[in-house]
Amino acid sequence: MTPKDRLSFNVYRYTNTSPNPVTYNSQLLNTTWDCSCSNAWLPSIDYTRVWTPTLVMDLNMGFFRNVVLRNPPGTGQNAATTLGIASLPMDQTPQISASTTAQNSTSNNFGFSNIGADTNTNQVNITNTYTPFGTITKTYGPHTFKAGASLRKNEFNSFNPATNPEGLFVFDGSITNHGAAGNPNTQIADLLLGKIKTTSYEQAQPPTGRRNYNFGVFFQDDWKVTPKLTFNLGIRYEYESPMTVATNIYSRVDPATGTLLAAGLNGVSRSLNINTPRGNVSPRFGLAYSIDDKTVVRAAFGTFYGTIFQNLGGQLAYPGFDNTVTTNNLGTGVAQPFSLSQGLPLAPPPDLKNPFAALVGSSATNPYGPQISFNDQSHMPLVQQWNLGFQRQLPLLLTLEVNYIGNHALHLSYNVNENQVPLSSVDAVTLANTSVATQNSLQFPNLKSFTVNSNIGTSNYNGLQVSVRRQFNTRIAVLSNYTYSKTMDDGSTIYNFSAPNGTANSQYPVAGPNFMHDVAPSNIDSQHVLNIAMVYTTSGPWWLRNWHISPVFVGHTGLPVNITQNLGIPGASQRPNGDPRLLKLTKPTLNGPALQYFDSAADPSFPLTASGPVYNTINGVRTRIVATGFGNVSRDSNRAPGEADFDASVSKDFKIHEALNFQFRVDAFNVINHTNFQAPSGGLSVTAVGTNATFASSSGFGKITATQPNRQMQLSARFFF
Q: What is the pTM of this model?
């Protein structure tokens, strides 16, 4: 624009369309959505003003829009008439499941696939993020001052039914098998006769628009005290607003009172009485001191606040606005009073102006099931970080760097179970073994147990990091680093997919005085990590010259495996008793197609025993054979095998004409085809045999059934100019 003014504009466009195969080659019977379709826009504009040589202003406005679409299968094809099912909640094929396993499974033990749309096949999710940002930088003598502010405005517009708005019919085979457990033949027989075991369908809430924003301001000073000493001083203030929904279709159950809170109704705030702190101030301090021209010492400390609502998103379904209509199991071998050809008995649609109606009539015999929701957000996640290290230049163009790095995190997100059976009532409730007895023992008998997200988790990390690198000259560059570390926490992740070996949280994550924090190694704790990378450029005649050879080695010790068992105390993630150190086999052996890495649970000398309560029916009487109590095996007690991976690439650039170049490249992953095993199964199943509880039926325990990818190679070529 002018010598002092610069304006730049960038825009990026992304689209992805990955069609899914059509099950049964029929849109009407298809089980999944049409494609994984998404598109995004990322424009930004930046303005820089140089007021004086020592005063510069920079202003930036960014925008991000991401659209994710899933179109459900079998829509608009007159499903009711074509299939002969008179009453359906939507013009779409319902999910028909011939299964004795979980209702929403896509298949069952016997290999029968479901017919009709599976769960979560209908989505319209649109993210809009606005990010204005500005800084002013002033140099004054030995000081470089910088101040700035940022705003992040988050919008998430979503229509995302989580279960089956098209309906679900379950045929378990027990009806034509005269009350006995179903089998493949009787499941199909129930289906052909239209004898339904249970049904459900979701009355999906209308599209919602989640809203919140993040605001921050900062000031920092880079102060060159002497030619050898520099201080970095700073302070930052941050605020994240609680989440609201544009249309006020937003609700949650208050775990303290058991009442439904709805946005804007009965004196409840638009954020459902959830408040976030306004005093989040973060100091930062750092220094660098040059002992001589080859040695530098650095140290730093700072605190950093995390964000919640924009990362976790929040619940998808709000009680009273999004409801599931179910037909109860009428008993062993008893069918519903309506047939498949008659279809689903439909309930009146929910009254969006009166979400409280969903809880009217709820009781211990007909409890309401709330969805997960936010609860205590009075503290935002906080990480305190510090480091101390030195850097030394060595001969042969080598640089050595040694750092101690630590952090301590507070107020991390944690899923907490609410409205659970009190520990004092566990014996009586589990002995009765009825849903009514369970509900009557709860603080709120008309509500099922539910989960809330509160900021109560902690973690800490301490690590020694050593790196050696060789600066690139005409032929070779090397980068290597080794880390020895320990990561501890009281709950690793709230999502099973976000940790290598799944979640591993408290044995008793139940709200109240008996909540267990269970501090142990984190799911991501790898004590030893080694990385070595090199780039070598060849010399010689023209046909050998300037080939770039880049080998990379990555190795780390094994990640933790959490040992758990089924049954036990309601609300618990039960673990067994015993010495888990005795599980690791000295020499893992093949067991069929799997590798037996831990001791087989069928071994008579298996070192673990069940924690209770465990029951068995003896002489017609339900009898407790293992006393109630938590297991003494610690969280993340064992380790999976480590991994070692060697990759390499070879490439060469060819000049075609002036600025036009051509690159040929070969990449090889796991070059030596080394087998890296995935984690063994850590889940145990309790079986009652007489007065004994055994794990002998846990045939999958301790087995490794998968490996990381074998050797893969790819060739690529590109023109660049």
A: 0.85
Decide the pairing of beta strands 143-159 and 280-292: unpaired
Structure tokens at 297: 């010492």
pLDDT in tens, 65-104: 999 998 888 788 888 899 899 999 988 888 888 764 433 3
Query: Tokens 């002018």 correspond to what residue?
Result: 2
Coil, helix or strand at residue 477: strand
Q: Please answer whether residues 34 and 20 qualify as being in contact, where contact means their C-beta atoms are separated by less than 8 angstroms.
A: yes
pLDDT at 203: 87
Give the total residue count for the chain: 721
Q: What is the pLDDT of residue 626?
A: 95
β-pair type (55-70, 123-140)? antiparallel
How many angstroms separate the CA atoms of 102 and 109, rounded?
10
Q: How far apart are CA 700 and CA 566, in angstroms?
A: 14
Instruction: For 212-229, write each residue's pLDDT tens digit.
Output: 999 999 999 999 999 999
| Sequence spans of domains, the chain | 570-720
The neighbouring-strand residues paired with 140 are: 143
| Backbone conformation region of residue 429, classed left if phi is above 0, alpha if psi is from -120 to 50, else beta | alpha
| Cα gap 130→41, rounded to integer Å | 12
Residue 472 structure tokens = 């690139």
Task: Round to whole Å and give the CA distance between 589 and 676.
Answer: 16
Q: Which residue, among 674, 680, 676, 675, has the nearest Cα to 704 in the 3D structure?
A: 680
Of 273, 303, 269, give the one whose Cα is nearest residue 285: 303
Cβ atoms of residues 579 and 634 within 8 Å: no
Q: Which residue has the tokens 């203030």?
A: 237
Whole-number Å distance between alpha carbons of 280 and 19: 46
Distance CA 646, CA 458 (A): 35
Rounded Cα–Cα distance for residues 675 and 497 (Å): 23
